Structures are given as structure tokens and as C-alpha cells.
From TrEMBL:
This is Crp/Fnr family transcriptional regulator. Keywords: DNA-binding, Transcription, Transcription regulation. It comes from Corynebacterium xerosis. GO terms for molecular function: DNA binding; DNA-binding transcription factor activity. Gene3D superfamilies: Jelly Rolls, Winged helix-like DNA-binding domain superfamily/Winged helix DNA-binding domain. The keyword RNA-binding does not apply. Residues 33-153 form the Cyclic nucleotide-binding domain.
Amino acid sequence: MSERRYVPLRATCGEPHACPAPVRRRVLAATALFGDLGEREIADVGERMTARSWAAGEYLYVEGDPADDLYVLASGRAKMTRTDADGAEIVLDVLGPGDLFGGVATLGMGVHGDSVMALNTTCALRIDSDGFRALLGDYPAVAMRAFDEVAGQLSSTRAAFAAVTGTVAQRVAGALVRLAAKFGDPGPDGVLLQVPLTRADLAGMTGSTTESVSRAMSAMRRDGVIDTGRKWTAIIDMAALRELAEG
């Protein structure tokens, strides 16, 4: 799979400065919050939300900012992080299309407890507190789901991605397995992860150091479990990776 070293990950945001109406409808229909609405209702929700885009490395919001907007990622990838007591970055989650994040006063949130940064060109739909409150009043079905579905997804724990038990190799392998389930692109030579993560991102995701992650991934590559390049990873032997994750 060495030829993939020169093949970039495919672009996930075809319109870097806009989220077209068909994209909005498709993304909203796929969410648990809005999925039960009819086509006209989903179109109405989409019209109430504004679309914004961010380049790789730009923050959608920062920990401590007022929590006055709810977001639905429409295209691209973003990482949700928090700073620990020592100033280190912890990666709580990696977000993809259809993921809900952010927070509004309607859900009892005053300030953001995390930061979200675009990993590549990213487009998100956004609605403010007043707009979300009006939406809940107009769509009782959404109101019934809001606190269960949204509050659950906005939970600051994001424990699945912040697991810090086991050896470094186990934690890195486990993170790669979870990323493959969400962002994997299966092919004849393996599963390419369609998310541009660095070693530092994986370190933040697994409670490890960049050096420890690099050593673990080098060993996996040497054993034929994965292949890697600049900001991309391909899983060659998923069974072996799962076995490593389980210890």
C-alpha cells in the first residue's frame, strides 16, 4: 500500500463557502434529532439554520466561549478537545457529517466546556438559542427528542474516544478501530481512515505522548497491521488491530 503515500484523502466539502440546500436536507434527515420530520419540515429547519465554513486549523468555538449556538456538521471533519489541568490537549471526539455539537442556554449550558477545531475544510449548520427555542415550540417531536438526543451527544465525557486504560499500543489500536467504524473507507488493500489526524491528535485521544504514539504505530506498520503517511492511516489487518486493542 506504499503507493497511497502520495494520494491525499478525498475532499469532503465540495462547496468550501456554502452548504447547499440539498446538503442541508440530507444531513438533517440523517440526525436522530430531525430524522422523524417530513421533507417539508426538514426543509424548513434547514432554512432556519445558517451555514458557515472553516478552513483546516480554524476554531468553530473555544472552550469558555458563551454557549449560544447549536451546530450540525454538514461536511468535513473536526476535533472536539478540552484542556486538562496541566494544559495538555485531550481529544474528546472526532466529528463528522451529521454530528451535533455546541450548546445553547435552552439546554442548560452557559459556556462551552470544550473547543472544536476544523481538521479540513468544514461546513456546519448553526442555530442560535432563540431560533432553537422557537424550533422546539413549532416541532413537538423535536422537543421530545432534544434533551435525550442532543444532551447525550453533547456530553462532555465522550468517553469512548478518551479511553486511557491499557498499554499505549492497546489504546492507539482501540482508537483506530473506533475511527475506522466511523470514518473508514474500505478498499481492496484495507480500510483508509478519511480523517486527517496527526500523531499529536492520537496522543490527545489516548492519553499518551506523541513519541509513544509514534513508536506504537511504527510497530503496527512494521507488523503489517497498518500503513501510514502524512495525516493519513490505512488499516491493512483489521482482525489483528482488534486483537491488539483487546490485549
